[in-house]
Amino acid sequence: MSNRVFVVGVGMTKFEKPGSREGWDYPDMAREAGTKALDDAGVTYDQIQQAYVGYVYGDSCSGQRAVYELGITGIPIVNVNNNCSTGSTAIYLGAEAIRGGRADCVLALGFEKMQRGSLAAGYTDRTSPLEKHVMTLAKLYEPQPPIAPYMFGAAAREHMERYGSAPEHYAMIGEKNHRHSVNNPYAQFQDEYTLEEIRESRSIYEPLTKLQCSPTSDGSGAVVLASEAFVRAHDLADQAVEILGQAMVTDTASSFGDSAISAVGFDMSRKAAELVFAQAGRSIDEVNVIELHDCFSANELITYEALGLAKVGEGHKLIENGETTYGGRCVVNPSGGLISKGHPLGATGLAQCSELTWQLRGTADQRQVDGAQLALQHNIGLGGAVVVGLYQKAVL
User: Fold this and answer.
1) % helix / strand / coil in the chain, to the nearest 5?
2) What is the value of pTM for the model shown?
3) Chain centre to alpha carbon of residue 115
4) Is the torsion defined by CA of 56, 62, 63, 68 positive or negative?
C-alpha cells in the first residue's frame, strides 16, 4: 500500500479586515473556501472520509458547524487549535490519516473570525501558554505590549546585536511582501509602499513598524488531500501536488535558554526543515518558491537561516541582495505573505498551501514564479509548534 499524499483541491476566501463584510460569519467563510476546494478537486462532499478543521478563536465544535455547510454525512470531524500554525496542523493531521491507511480522501479546513487590533489573551484567570516564552524573553529585553511584536522584535534586536543586521533589512522585507501582494486578489492589502514609507510608518516595537506586522483578519482556506489510489482511480494526476515531506516540531529545551531568536521558534523551525529534507532526499538549494510565516518581518529574516537559505547570521544579506524576490535565488512569499495577505490564524497554513499548489500547477497568474518545480511551506505558532512541508507537482 502506498503512503504517498497528494493535494488535489484548494480554495480560499479573500482575507478581510475583521468585521468589514457585514454578516460574514465563519460558516459563510467555510462554505466559500470548502466549496472552492471541492470543486477544484472535482469531488463531492460525500467522498470526504474525514475532516480536520482549524480555528483559534471560537467555541468548541465550531469545526462541525463550519463543515456542516458542505454536507452532513456523519464522518469524523476533528477540531484543531495550534495557535498560528493551526491551518498547517490540520493539513498535517489529514495527511497522517492518509499515510496510515485510515482514509483516502480528507478535507483540511481552517477559518478565523477575529477582533480588530492586536491579539489579546482569551482567558486571564489561568496560566498563559506563552508564560515560559515571555519569562525567557523578559530576562533579555524589557517587555512591552502588545506581546506578539515584542517577542519577534526582541529576536530582531538580538540579531542586530549579534550579526549586524539593521532596521533597513527588516523594512526591506516589508517592502518586498507588500509589493508581491499587489498581484494577489485574495490579499487583505494590495498596496505597494516605498522603503521609506515602510520605515516611517508607526513604530510598534523597534525595529518593527506597522507595515512590517501582519494584521488580524477574517477568512478561510481549505485543502482536499488524497491517497495515491484515490488520485489514480479518479484521474486526478494532472492537477495533483504531492507532499514530498512534512514535519511538525514543538519547542525544544533551547526555546527557554538565553536567546530571543530561539524563544520565538528558530530551533524548532530548523529541526522541522531538516526532517523534511531528509524525508524527501532533497535540499533547500532546489526550492524555487516558499510561503514563509512572516507574522513580522523579523521572523522572515531569522527563518531564512533556520531553513538553510542563508548561514546563521547572514539572513539579512539575502534580502539586501534581492535573493528572495522575482529574479533572485528563491521567491519568498509571492502571495504577499502574512504581512500583506493577512493572518486569520486558522486559515493561514491552508492559504499557504493553496498558493504553493497554484504555483506548482503554473496557474498563479501575475504572481507565477517561472519554472516553479519545488515549493516549501513554513507555518509557525508560538506556544509552540511549527509545520514545514515540501511540495512537488505529482509524478505518477
Assistant:
1) 40, 20, 40
2) 0.97
3) 20
4) negative
Select from 71, 68, 24 the least CA-distant residue to 47.
71
What pLDDT was estimated at residue 249? 98
Query: What's 262's DSSP letter?
Result: H
Secondary structure element (H or E) that encloses residue 245, with its range: strand 241-250
Alpha helices for the chain (secondary structure H): 26-41, 62-67, 86-99, 131-138, 147-163, 167-181, 195-200, 228-233, 260-263, 266-280, 297-307, 315-320, 337-341, 348-361
Residues with a catalytic annotation lie at 84, 343
* Structure-block grid coordinates of residue 394: 505529482
Sign of torsion over alpha carbons 123, 127, 133, 134: positive
What cell numbers appear for 344 in the block?
Answer: 486569520
Closest listed residue to residue 12, CA positions, set 393, 348, 394: 348
Is-contact 216 115, C-beta < 8 A? yes
Give long-range contacts, CB 8 A cutoff, 24+ apart: 231-237.
231/6, 231/8, 231/394, 231/396, 232/396, 234/42, 234/43, 236/6, 236/8, 236/41, 236/42, 237/394, 237/396
Q: Grid coordinates in use for 192?
A: 505597494
Grid coordinates of 20: 468589514
How far is residue 272's CA from residue 71's CA, in Å, rounded to a whole number?
35
Q: Which of 191, 204, 201 is nearest to 117 (CA)?
A: 204
The per-residue pLDDT for 1 is 67
Q: pLDDT tens across 87-108, in order?
A: 999 999 999 999 999 999 999 9
Q: Whose CA is closest to 68, among 25, 34, 23?
A: 34
Q: Assess contact for 175 and 320: CB atoms under 8 A.
A: no
Low-confidence ranges of the chain (pLDDT < 50): none
- In whole angstroms, give the CA distance from residue 126 to residue 383: 15
Tell me what pLDDT residue 119 has. Answer: 64
Count other Cβ atoms within 10 Å, centred on residue 31: 20
Name the burial class of residue 189, with classes exposed (0-12), middle (13-18) and buried (19+) by CB atoms within 10 angstroms of its CB: buried
Cell 486569520 belongs to residue:
344
Contact 331, 290 (CB under 8 A): yes
- Positive or negative CA dihedral for 312, 84, 355, 197? negative
